[in-house]
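quick one: uridine-diphosphate-N-acetylglucosamine bound model?
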Amino acid sequence: MKVASIVGARPNFMKLAPVDRALKAHGGFRHIIVHTGQHYDYEMSRVFFEELDIPSPQYHLGVGSGLHGEQTGKALVEIERVIMREKPDIVLVYGDVNSTLAGALAAAKLHVRVGHVEAGLRSFDMTMPEEINRRVADTVSDFLFTPHPVADDNLRKEGVERRRIVMVGDTMIDTLLENLPRIRRLETPREMGLEEGGYMLVTLHRPSNVDERESLKAIIASLRRVSRELTVVFPVHPRTRARIGQWRLGGVSGKSDRLRLIAPLSYMKFVRLMLSARVVLTDSGSIQVETSFLGVPCLTMRDNTERPYTVTEGTNRLIGRGASMMETAVADVMRARRPVRRRIAGCHGRAAWRIAAYLAQKI
Ligand code: UD1
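yep, here:
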C-alpha cells in the first residue's frame, strides 16, 4: 500500500516521524514524504528531519511564505501534481497548518482517501486560520485519527459518522516518549548558563499576539520586567523576529543577559529546556500538550485552546491574548508548588502504531 504524507511546517514534523517508523515496522507499506516548503529555514525544518531521523522528502515543493490564499493555493497546485503522478492509496495530513488544508483538499478532489492525523480538535474560534484548516481537513477526510477523547466528542457533535473516527492518541507524544531518554542526557541548560528550574521559556508567534505593534511591544516590555526576577529565554520564531525588526522593537528588550532573544532551537534542545524550566509561556498548540505531559507549568497567551484537556488534566492555564495577565500569572506560578505529573488520555506512545495497524486492516 502506498501512503503519501504531506507536511510543511515545524509542528508537522514531530507528528510525522513516528508514523514513518510505524509504517516501516509494520511492513506492507511504501511511504513517500511530500514537503510543501511552507517552512524552509534550517532551524524550522531540516534540523527536525536530522534529529528525528526522518527520511528526506521525495518531493520538495518549495511553496515558501505568502498570504494564506497564495501559500495554500501554490501548495494545492503542486500537491495535486504529485498525487496524480504517484497515485497513492492514501494521503496522510497532519495537524492544522496551511499545508494540511492543501493536502487534504488536493487528495479529496482526486478521490484519494485522506487520513487526518490529529483530527477533531476545535478552538471554536474561526478567527484562527488553524481552526478553518482543521475543520475543512476533517470534513474531507475519510479517516479521522484523533489524539484525545475530546476530539471524538467534537466530531460526534458535528454529526460525523462513528466509523470515520479512530481514537489513536497523540503521535507528537510518541516522539517525545521515544526521545526522552536521549533528551534528558543533554546538557543544554548548563551549556547556556541556565539554572535548573531558574528560567522561563517563551515561544510566541500567533498573529493575535505578534501581528499588532502595541501588543508585541507590551509583551516584550512585560518580559523585560519578568526577567528581573526570573531569567527569560525566548527562541524567536521567524514571524515574530520579522515583526520585531519591522517595528524596531529590539530596544524594548534591553541588553540584559536575563532576557535572551535567541534563534529558534532544535526539537531536542527545546524539549530539554522545557524539562528544566520553572514555567513555559507560549501561544503554540503543541507545547500545551508537551508541558502537560512533562508536568511543567504552562501559561498560554490565548483566549481559547483546541486542547482544553491540557487545562483540566494538565498544567496549562489560559491567560488571554496579549501581555495584560502575564506578570501576575508568572508570579502565581512562582508562589505555587510544582504541579504533580498526571496521566493524560492519548499520551501513551502507541498512536502511530495504531494508525499503521488500522490502515493495514482497512485498506
Ligand atoms: C505556521 C502555522 C501555525 C503554526 C506555525 C508553527 C499556518 C496558517 N500557520 O505559522 O499554525 O503554529 O506555523 O511554526 O499554517 N518564515 C521564515 N522562515 C521559515 C518559515 C517562516 O522566515 O522557515 C517567516 C516568513 O516571514 C513568513 C512567516 O514566518 O511569512 C510566517 O510563516 P507561515 O508559514 O506563513 O506561518 P507561521 O506563523 O510560521
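The chain has a mean pLDDT of 97.
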